[in-house]
Design a protein that fits this description.
Number of helices: 4
Structural class: alpha/beta
Number of strands: 15
Strand content: 25-35%
Length: 226
């Protein structure tokens, strides 16, 4: 399928921040510092109900297989669970881990061989949210002023990041994403994640956005739609 490119390279509205909601804030801070991704996300305490797949993953792209292994090893040493061991694939090399707070992370590279020693450098972090209808959700975000930079029909869409954003937003079919991560697609309750950007709203798949720079809400105990 041909890849469609839409418009400019910068969006009027973009993902400015990603906040992961966790039950144990101090433990999560220690984990993400040890894992090496703490500069890319914010954390806040929440007891919101959540079971099964939360509908998203955070993907970390690095330079080579040895660096993938280093990040996976650091995550496991800090308490993560391996969902998919790091291995070669058609697209490169990668593995999937689940943080103690339940957030799923995929660490990958397009390189199948190392061209240098392992590093702790991250090339890119992508928030990939699983949606029921990629085309409809893509149009929802376009209507919010976001710019599509990659689109593969109804399977995948990617948006231009903001200049100050450390994380790029992308969409994928929910069941396809769960399969790629090695988990069942079913899940209920809160996504346990909040997105900061242009205004406060909830997207068609229940992902909540907050106006960038707005004060964080009090910790929630109520279930949210998945």
């Amino acid at each position: 399928m041909d890849m469609a490119i839409n418009g400019s390279t910068a969006s009027d509205t973009s993902l400015a921040s990603v906040t992961v909601e966790v039950a144990d804030l101090d433990a999560a801070r220690r984990f993400y510092a040890a894992f090496g991704v703490d500069a890319y996300i914010s954390l806040r305490a929440s007891e919101a109900h959540s079971t099964g797949f939360r509908g998203f993953t955070l993907g970390v792209t690095v330079s080579g297989p040895a660096t993938v292994d280093g990040f996976v090893g650091a995550a496991v040493d800090a308490g993560a669970t391996v969902l998919k061991p790091a291995a070669k694939s058609l697209w490169g090399y990668g593995g999937v881990v689940q943080a103690p707070d339940g957030t799923i992370w995929k660490i990958a590279t397009s390189a199948k061989k190392d061209t240098g020693p392992a590093t702790r450098e991250i090339d890119e972090v992508v928030l990939l949210i699983g949606v029921e209808d990629v085309k409809a959700t893509k149009e929802f975000y376009v209507g919010r002023g976001m710019t599509v930079t990659k689109s593969f029909g109804g399977k995948y869409a990617e948006f231009a990041p903001g200049q100050s954003s450390p994380v790029k937003l992308a969409l994928y079919k929910r069941r396809g994403l769960a399969k790629d991560l090695g988990v069942p697609a079913d899940g209920t309750g809160s996504h346990r994640i909040a997105l900061g950007g242009g205004g406060s709203f909830t997207d068609p798949d229940g992902f909540a956005w907050e106006a960038a720079g707005s004060p964080a809400p009090a910790p929630s105990t109520a279930p949210e739609p998945s």
